[in-house]
Design brief:
The chain is an all-beta fold. The chain has one helix and ten strands. The strands form two sheets. Strands 1, 2, 3, 4, 7 and 10 form a six-stranded antiparallel β-sheet that branches. A four-stranded antiparallel β-sheet has the order 6-5-8-9, with no helix packed on it. It starts with 6 loop residues before the first strand and ends in a 13-residue tail after the last strand.
Length: about 210
């Protein structure tokens, strides 16, 4: 009789992403125009991943312009993912289009940058693969970015982590390389910081 394969949940290390919003111009580098936490929960059957849940927490936006957030799955074709953005080679998914609105504000003023004025928002998006993929979704192929002039713009202003490339719809600039590091200054516009929540419930302390 054929043995049933077990479903495995592969949960990644959480990361906090911090963005400057004025690419390709030099920023003020307070790194708070968009602050968001990401954790990925892969659902695997055997060696294949059939879906991935993106759990995000929007903490703050120090921007005075509309900030949207999306991600590209590098190396995974748009046709492999249900509800992926049209007109892209790799799968691109929009998380939200307006950080201020998501945090409960109708004004373009900083939120939660120097003190907590709004409750951070936690939400999740599930990616369903039309055919299960090899490997998992993690920091290596999860290409998070912000958009500062709207997702519907023909050549939209995307800001990515250094080392990751823009989507097919990203604007280009003579001042920046394809991996979002300034040719002139060597500066970048985004950071990703790994973090590990520590539980003290089962710790045995020395006496």
């Amino acid at each position: 009789r054929r043995q049933r394969q077990m479903c495995i949940r592969d949960r990644t290390l959480p990361y906090t992403y911090l963005f400057e919003d004025n690419w390709p111009a030099t920023g003020d580098y307070d790194m708070n125009d968009l602050v968001i936490g990401i954790q990925i929960n892969n659902k695997k059957i055997g060696d294949k991943t059939e879906s991935a849940k993106i759990i995000y927490t929007l903490y703050a936006t120090g921007a005075t312009k509309q900030i949207g957030v999306g991600f590209q799955l590098d190396g995974i074709s748009a046709s492999a993912v249900s509800d992926a953005e049209q007109g892209q080679t790799n799968a691109v998914i929009q998380l939200f289009s307006d950080a201020h609105s998501l945090l409960g504000s109708s004004e373009r003023t900083p939120i939660n940058t120097y003190k907590v004025t709004m409750t951070p928002v936690e939400n999740e998006v599930t990616i369903n693969f039309n055919t299960p993929i090899d490997g998992v979704i993690n920091v290596n192929n999860f290409n998070l970015f912000i958009v500062t002039n709207g997702f519907d713009s023909d050549r939209r202003n995307e800001v990515h982590i250094a080392g990751y490339k823009g989507t097919d719809k990203a604007a280009s600039s003579d001042n920046s390389t394809v991996d979002y590091v300034s040719n002139e200054t060597g500066l970048m516009w985004a950071l990703s910081i790994p973090s590990q929540a520590v539980s003290y419930t089962h710790l045995t302390l020395p006496t």
